[in-house]
């Protein structure tokens, strides 16, 4: 059964794998290969280094418009045409080399006979000279034109760190494909990508696409209604409290002397984080400070409820739990004008709308530092978010040290050019050939325990997630490397104990990220040995941190078509002693069994809604969580209602409004994926009506800016079975969660850019139910742009609310993020030229705008300034230091 792995293990015992910077493509000795070189340029390490240093590569999109050039297949032809231009600085005739690079979109075909491009695994592709290759000539450009699918709409799709390899030589990164950092914005720049310029050919998915490129005039129109009114921010708290009464708006209480906190019976440690945030703003704890009392609240109904009373001579915070006291202090920080350190005399009564107010961070695709997580936890606490969903294992990396399974981090936490994957995983997502890069890494046990304690001190629950059974390639390859190592040592029993793959499985499948080997074999007992081991070891870390593990996210993703040709699975189904009668039931069996395994340990299982929908509810524990990530424009309310009606804790995680790895604005220079939305800015998140998902069809459009309809009435199939319908009257959602997936997010600064300030809007919708939200109709209704449930009066109240929120962010909150050293996105400005005069605006009033003409000096913007074209504009961060991305006024 394990013949192939045994052979590999024997080979491992006889040879030494190359380390991260000395990896060869084949096992043939360098000497034997060198003797075979007969080309005019014999490839030596020095020559390969020279190629890497001087070869110019440009990635160029030609068109997204489908046509006769698209490969024919089922359905509507969809493809893009792109080119890779290679310019050598010297003559080179050798064909004994290959260039590896990450191609995010699958290639249909390559034009011409000079090169081939083949997929290695996932997004890793290999360019090789073909029969028609005549060599490089100094200064001449050779173009590799190819067709891919379905479309390429962002310059950030073109991943960095192409590298060249040759037999027996160390790989060399091609310098022209490395990222640069803009010194003014702090953001990544891709000099190897030819700028997109054509709104039709470069930024339309097809003829029906009505989404406008967010150029300066489009943004100007979008921002035009929002007034610049600092008064709107004066007594504004984000997230918005249930009730705020201004007792004396004219009498400002100065907090420059600080606060003298009387903790009463409250442990100072539980509110220390909230007091630290006040200190960062400039409000310190002092003996001469304003008297601040922490007092009990006997009438509290929900966790986190608090009362805040600010008078001329003292401040009082009333709460019944640690979170409530922290949130009361957070509201003081929210009220503070960071420039004057004053607050008005107010009375606040407040409690959260949802118990689950979460943020998900993927550190698997590209690793992010412990410090990023600690900084994020600080800001989550500041805005009253209480769940951190930490996604630590996926196809591209395993990021948590597990006692007894060192291969998970020795192999699975790094990517490098080891095609046997004995020392690392294959490069993906432009990670390059070497393991010593920041996108690789993991949290030690001590790191994770520190994160748990830090979160707990801020009343935040950490939800660990190691995705399975799909999205598990890092674990699978790590355990295969473990198997080979132990077999070479002659320990077959130990080698098989945690194996996750059936080596005789010849199933052909492809995951959504184009892997054909990323799904745990659910028919093997060793798979469940592995899961049990991992969960137990994570639980030990939680116990050591003093924070019990009571919620674990299994992912529940599977890969369609997996296991079909696995001999083990065929035997498993034929045996039928686990209640599985067909291959189609294996996914459900895995989730059900894993959920029960967790329940037996006193841990609630969570999973993504698509995988959870495959289960048989009667086989699931009564208590389970499902993250609903279905797109609202595609009928996403249906599964949300179905799973909530099962009594599960349904957490809304809708991509088009809660995926923070999507672009802020419809611009190909913006970072992020875009399969559900190309413009998820703060105003859109603010508009979200989580209590009535289908009603969002009245105010939103789809990814192509086209209207859609959401039918929430009872739907039946041909047999009369109900397949979708409205929520039951006694049912609601457990909460909402923002998501940051990291495929395109390589650095901590870019991660913060993508999360902030959108996290503030996430907190607003998770904490506060606005008066303008359309009431849910439990009898069902059909919502579209004409249905009229979202009345004009509601829309105006929503606009007024946005004006307050936008001015609060621009006038107060961004400066507080600056003081915390958070690299939030400085927005791009709106601007137009009318009769030779410049008019500009910004989504968050209060931020300064600069402009320049003809590449001259930057000048402070004044409305109606006389200008001569070309004119460029940019926004300045609240503290006056960082700059936003420059736009040309059109």
UniProtKB/TrEMBL annotation:
Quote the catalytic activity from the record.
Answer: Hydrolysis of terminal non-reducing N-acetyl-D-hexosamine residues in N-acetyl-beta-D-hexosaminides
In the UniProt record, the signal sequence range is: 1-20
- EC numbers for this chain: 3.2.1.52
**Organism the protein comes from:** Shewanella fidelis
InterPro entries registered for this protein in UniProt:
Beta_hexosaminidase_sua/sub (IPR025705), CBM2/CBM3_carb-bd_dom_sf (IPR008965), CBM2_carb-bd_dom_sf (IPR012291), CHB/HEX_N_dom (IPR004866), CHB_C_dom (IPR004867), GH (IPR017853), Glyco_hydro_20_cat (IPR015883), Hex-like_dom2 (IPR029018)
Concerning SUPFAM superfamilies, the annotation shows: (Trans)glycosidases, beta-N-acetylhexosaminidase-like domain, Carbohydrate-binding domain, E set domains
What SMART domains is this protein classified in? CHB_HEX
Task: State one Pfam family annotation.
Answer: Glyco_hydro_20b
Domain annotation Chitobiase/beta-hexosaminidases N-terminal: ranges: 53-218
Supply one GO BP term: glycosaminoglycan metabolic process
Q: Which PANTHER family match?
A: BETA-HEXOSAMINIDASE, BETA-N-ACETYLHEXOSAMINIDASE
The reply on keyword Hydrolase is: yes
Protein name as catalogued: beta-N-acetylhexosaminidase
Family statement: Belongs to the glycosyl hydrolase 20 family.
Gene Ontology terms, MF aspect? beta-N-acetylhexosaminidase activity; polysaccharide binding
Please provide the record's keywords in A-Z order.
Answer: Glycosidase, Hydrolase, Signal
